[in-house]
Every structure is written in structure tokens, then in C-alpha cells.
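Example record

One chain of 123 residues, shown exactly as stored in the release files.
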Amino acid sequence: CKGIYVEPAEIAYKDRREVQDNFLAILKQMIDDGNYVGIATHDDYLVDGAKKILKEKNLDKSKYEFQMLYGVKENLRDKINAEGHKIRIYVPYGEQWYAYSIRRLKENPQLAWYITKSVFGLD
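Predicted C-alpha cells for this chain:
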């Protein structure tokens, strides 16, 4: 999972390219180790990179899935789905859905921008 949270440098890469390169390296390692992988990202670069790795490894579609948050980058989600990849959508629900969603927005206000872009088809 490549999240949107801002984390301290002691526990997270700060450079975007470093984050992306590490994500793809870990994905390769997990596939090589025979794991079922959940590719959780809304990053177009990572989705494209993951699809290249899946093709190179000739990985059966039953061995992985893409994962995305409901309402974010729906055009990308639809493209992944149309290409025949399994996709799991994360939907906050239940009694605490609103409090959870507000907490996420407070932790990273940029999330509101992603949702707004998606609602208006700008993603």
C-alpha cells in the first residue's frame, strides 16, 4: 500500500520517486516469493509499473488484485477493471464512517482534492 499520509522521515521515504521505486521493488519481491498481492494505490505511475511487472512475471490474475478507495480516481479504477484485473474497492461504512472520513481528511487535506477531482471527472 502506498498511502497518502504524511509520515516522519525516520519511518518513511520522503522523495516521491524513492517511494515509487521502493513500492515496485517490494511488489516484485512479494510476487517472486509466491505471495498473493494486493496492489493498493491510486498512483497512475505505480499502476502502470505494476501492470508491467505482472506481464513480465506472467502472473495469473488469481494471484493478485488492485485495491482502491471508493470515490477516488474512478476513471483509473474503471480502466483497471476493463482490462480484466480483479479490483477491490475500500468503502468506509458503519456507525463510525463519518468520523473516520473526517479524521482522514484532517490528517491529510489533500485527500479532499482527490475526491473533488474524481466527483467532477477531473482525474
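Notes: Residues 41 and 97 are 21 Å apart (CA to CA).
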